[in-house]
């Protein structure tokens, strides 16, 4: 069983829609939860970072973490064609010697259509 | 400010050959990570440097992979000899501080194809 499960999509929505992206995880030791956005032929770019259960909002993006259910979500409001990308969830445990070893989901491919 | 730079962007080699990937982190970033994405799989951790020291190399697949970070600046990842299953995208990431909320900046990756 993978430590992090993420639906690969693809997910296609019309412009202006609310997008919901989700991941589940099995490792209770994960402390930090992130969402990355990756455009084609580019590296992942950090969108949201959180470490506690609850919601965190940044502009059109809201990250939600439910540690009791081992479930995280990313909501995108008023989606735009420029949001078309692959969205990766990532989780980590801070290592004793320092360092943030990330465990990624497989990524969900999102397309926002005009 | 320049981002994390990786080259080559693409490399096509034959099985048994040697390939060296290079990563130039953001200037001043002590932390440097290598990750890899094999086709159809998730991005996976390979190893972590703090300056020139390897802190964690638990993700390195086997002894055909050798990573170095000379003088704590750029890093190289050598695969020798390359096998078919080494094909994938190799990402480098760097961060400035050793804090739990460190922000990792990723390069665009090197697409490695072993034929």
Describe the structure.
- The complex is a heterodimer of chains A (114) and B (115).
- Chain A is mainly β and 114 residues long.
- Chain A is 0% helix and 57% strand.
- Chain A starts with a strand and ends with a strand.
- The mean pLDDT of chain A is 93.
- Helices cover 0% and strands 49% of the residues of chain B.
- In chain B, strands 2, 4, 5, 6, 9, 10 and 11 form a seven-stranded mixed sheet that branches. A four-stranded antiparallel sheet of chain B has the order 1-3-8-7, with no helix packed on it.
- The radius of gyration of chain B is 13 Å and the shape is globular.
Gap from first CA to last CA of chain A: 38 Å
Number of contiguous helices of chain A: 0
Q: How many angstroms separate the termini of chain B?
A: 37 Å
Work out the helicity level of chain B: under 10%
Helix and strand content put the structural class of chain B at mainly beta
Rounded mean pLDDT score of chain B: 93
Could you describe the largest sheet of chain A, including whether it forms a barrel? 6 strands, mixed
Radius of gyration over C-alpha positions of chain B, nearest whole angstrom:
13 Å
Topology summary:
The complex is a heterodimer of chains A (114) and B (115).
Chain A: E1 4-6, E2 11-14, E3 19-25, E4 32-38, E5 45-50, E6 54-58, E7 61-66, E8 71-76, E9 85-94, E10 100-104, E11 108-113
Parallel strand pairs in A: 2-11
Antiparallel strand pairs in A: 1-3, 3-8, 4-5, 4-9, 6-7, 7-8, 9-10, 9-11
Chain B: E1 5-7, E2 10-13, E3 19-24, E4 31-37, E5 43-50, E6 53-56, E7 65-68, E8 75-79, E9 88-95, E10 105-106, E11 110-114
Parallel strand pairs in B: 2-11
Antiparallel strand pairs in B: 1-3, 3-8, 4-5, 4-9, 5-6, 7-8, 9-10, 9-11
């Amino acid at each position: 069983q993978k430590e992090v499960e993420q639906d690969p999509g693809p997910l296609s929505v019309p412009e202006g829609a609310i997008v919901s992206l989700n991941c589940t995880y099995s490792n209770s030791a994960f402390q930090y939860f992130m969402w990355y956005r990756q455009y084609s032929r580019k590296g992942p770019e950090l969108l949201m970072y959180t470490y506690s259960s609850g919601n965190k909002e940044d502009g059109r993006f809201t990250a939600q973490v439910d540690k009791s259910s081992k479930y995280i979500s990313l909501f995108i409001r008023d989606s735009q064609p420029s949001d078309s990308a692959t969205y990766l969830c990532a989780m980590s445990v801070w290592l004793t010697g320092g360092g943030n070893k990330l465990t990624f989901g497989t990524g969900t491919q999102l397309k926002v259509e005009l | 400010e320049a981002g994390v730079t990786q080259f080559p962007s693409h490399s096509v080699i034959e099985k048994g050959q040697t390939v060296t990937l290079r990563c130039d982190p953001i200037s001043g970033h002590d932390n440097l990570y290598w990750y890899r994405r094999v086709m159809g799989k998730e991005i996976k951790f390979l190893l972590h440097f703090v300056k020139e020291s390897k802190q964690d190399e638990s993700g390195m697949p086997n002894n055909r992979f050798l990573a170095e970070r000379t003088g704590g600046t750029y890093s190289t990842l050598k695969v020798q000899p390359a096998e078919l299953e080494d094909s994938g995208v190799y990402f480098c990431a760097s961060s400035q501080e050793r804090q739990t909320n460190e922000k990792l900046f990723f390069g665009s990756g090197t697409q490695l194809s072993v034929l």
